Write the structure tokens for this entry.
Amino acid sequence: MIILAPEKIKAVEKRANDAGLSYMRMMEKAGRGCAEYILKNHRSAQKAVILCGKGKNGGDGFVIARHLTAACKFVTVIKLFDAPSDLLSESRRELLSSDTEMLVFPADRARAADAISKADIIVDAVFGIGFSGQLPADVKEVNRLCMRSDAVKTAIDLPSGLSANGISEDCFKADETLSMLCLKKEQVYKPFSSFCGKVTVIPIGIDISFTKGVFTLTPPELRERLPVRPFDSNKGTFGKAAIIAGSKNMPGAAIIAAKGAVSSGAGLVCVMYPDVCREIICSAVPECIHEPLLTDGNGMIDALEAETVANKTEKYGAVAFGCGLGTGNSGAVLLETLLRTYRGTLIIDADGINILAKHIDLLKNASCTVLLTPHPGEMSRLTGKTISEINADREHTAAEFAQKHNVYVLLKGANTVAASPSGEVFINTSGSTALSRGGSGDLLTGIATALTAEGAAPFDALMLAAFLHGRAGEIAEKRFTPYAATVQHITDCLPEAFLQLFEGQ
């Protein structure tokens, strides 16, 4: 499902208007589509209140009211602004049925409050995507009345009080949101999405397939991107993954990444680590192939092992590099060698990214497909941007870097985004604060490495890994609370996350 910013939506609508689909016809299609949804999904609702603003969103509300009235529903329109735009002034009679009760707030405060208290469904068509800042006092008052009502609360495009800039006090909290044309970022990003409820896209007859950029996928759509697992297969069929990770002080990072790969379907998982960590890593992941390597004076894999690592990784379709590895010179030598010689897919995370940030030119002549999985702090080191600048426009930051360096980027954090070198950007919708702990990123790297080794396309692997990782976090949160859920709990929840992917939840 495509996600468009307000300015792009306006451009799409103008393009359609110039092509002959007038704004009034768009409004009619939007309102009729919403009314049809309400009539189909809320058959028992007899009393409807439609809150209308003065712009196009309010016009949608007028059309909804007319169609509900025609379907023998008792409808009250509460108009929040007594000075409608020219567009609505000229066409009000066409948009709104003469049989529909019309109230103006606050002039008709008592009658409006009574209608809201008796409503079966309340439709918020006040602002939509055109809102920013803080709500006017009258809208706040109406929203408070709505929140005390037991009616189903339906928002058109966006609940009043919600915008990309924040959540206004007394924001309308919807049970469901009907989104015209496409998804909006606020319907996907947390915590904004919690005010939207269930989101349904209402088509209005405009082709947006030509738009390129930001999108999200449902679980069934993601499932289609999983590598096929034929019945007549063996462990070699399902891919070979290698994890180059760990150091004397951080053996756990290698263990967590390896467990993530093992739990995500890779047929064979090899772990390469400093030999000083052999005992603890061997005992933690006995199902893996173990390749202990010489340890340097800093407790890292020795640079002398660079060519050995290059030779050993040749037979692996996907290699993860960096989790708990350390950032000394040995790591830089290993990374340079891999980027120069390896021919598969290289997933670089954690210390690997911090090393790369100091040697970014290594990407210019990389012999392999490169996937990066930075958190905002690591992205800051890669780009030179501040964390605030990155979080202010995560999609653009990830896409810009991916295109500039011909790599795939998974920018972690609340609402993880994946970006491809071609400019596509995926917004992940799963996740939990339970994931905000050390080792969570190592687990994600292991999942992505396994899926890549199994045959998933690089971008598909990142999208799937982000969703499964986030969903496992959600499951762990429900079972153990976000306070007590550990990375091991999240790992143990991965099988259920896969199951839910197949169940389309």
Remarks:
- Residues 84-88 have pLDDT under 50 and may be disordered.
- The first helix runs from residue 6 to 18.
- The chain has two domains: 6-211, 220-503.
- The longest strand covers residues 268-274.
